[in-house]
Amino acid sequence: MTTLPDLAGIAANLESMARSLARIAGGDDRPIALDAEADAYLWDAGARQLVPVRSVNRVPLDLLAGVENLKAILLENTLAFARGHGANNALLWGARGMGKSSMVKAVHAHINGMEDEELETLILIEINREDLGTLPHLLRFIASRPERFVIYCDDLSFDRDETSYKALKSVLDGGLEGRPRNTLFYATSNRRHLMPRDMIENESSTAINPGEAVEEKVSLSDRFGLWLGFHKCDQDTYLDMVSSYVAYYDIPVDAAELKAKAIEWAATRGSRSGRVAIQFVRHLAGEKGRAV
After folding, report:
1. Would you state the pLDDT for residue 117?
2. How far is C-alpha 186 from the chain's CA centre?
3. Residue 239 contacts by C-beta under 8 Å, 6 or more apart in sequence?
4. Same domain for 158 and 83?
5. CA 20, CA 26: separation in Å to the nearest integer?
6. Contact, 47 vs 134, CB < 8 A?
7. N or C: which end of the chain has fewer CB within 10 A?
8. Which residue pairs from 7-11 have beta carbons closer than 8 angstroms and sit at least 24 positions apart in sequence?
9. Is 232 or 176 the better-scoring residue by pLDDT?
10. pLDDT at 162
């Protein structure tokens, strides 16, 4: 007796294969559904999908001490965007551990916690530097959504022979499609021009036209309308950061003891920054039997 093939099963398998091939080819740009319980996502470039993050690793905006002016500028820019007004893409560059990425996440949470009828829903999407080539696909996913999206790339920089920056340049300014009106791009970097100084100097010294040799890569940073520079902090600012964290987490410690231990901790680390401050406070909380 001849067994008839399972036509429905074959059709389903073929449809699944077609969807997979479309994703690989970059052509699967269907509208997406968002998780009602999440306001932050990770972009999975391989699967071409957004992964919800229901518990974001961040601190309250008020806890970011020593960067008040920068904090106010980024908050104002993001608020304007959330209200549907004009806003700039932002590059937060400078010293390590001074709160660049923490500020982006804190501003996002602060705005979503505000009671303001003018504010639209603000979604934060983190994209890895290695996945910037898929940024146009991500934008097509979210362009038709009613929410407003801040796309965020942490530790953005480019080394020799990398070409993924071209996709970012096209999105930031000048591409045919350009950046959708409901998206904004924020990046953090330790480099102001997103490429190492020795690479700039090497290409300048060996090129027939030194200016043109590096202009394409250096001009990427110019496409950010807002530059926020984070610099190393002095001892007083560092101690203010420590005191803010200690007060917030209600850690019982004498002022003289706190100052002495905080200075000693910074000396052993060889630097002073917000990151060093919170690391010290975690250590202190452990000594005092407090959770952080």
Report:
1. 87
2. 6
3. 259, 262, 263
4. yes
5. 10
6. no
7. N
8. none
9. 232
10. 63
The domain spanning residue 106 has which CATH number? 3.40.50.300
CA nearest 152: which of 192, 188, 195? 188
Minimal CA–CA distance to 154: which of 185, 124, 123, 188?
Answer: 188
Tokens of 201: 């100097």
Largest CA distance in the chain: 92
- For residues 47-58, average pLDDT: 91
Decide which of 211, 230, 249 is a domain's last residue.
Answer: 230
Residue 68 tokens read as 């008040």
pLDDT digits (tens, 9 = 90+) for 68-124: 999 999 999 999 999 999 999 999 998 888 999 999 999 999 999 999 888 999 999
259 shares a domain with 213: no
- Among candidate residues 230, 251, 274, the one where a domain is terminated: 230
144 and 181 co-located in one domain: yes
**Co-location of 90 and 188 in the same domain:** yes
Residues 60-83: tens digit of each pLDDT = 999 998 899 999 999 999 999 999
Token duo for residue 167:
């996709």
Going from the C-alpha of 230 to that of each of 32, 92, 173, the distances in angstroms are 36, 7, 24
- In tens, the pLDDT along 144-159 reads 899 999 999 998 877 6
Domain range spanning residue 71? 40-230
Secondary structure letter of residue 129 according to DSSP: G
Residues 263 and 125 in one domain: no
- Does some domain include residue 32? no
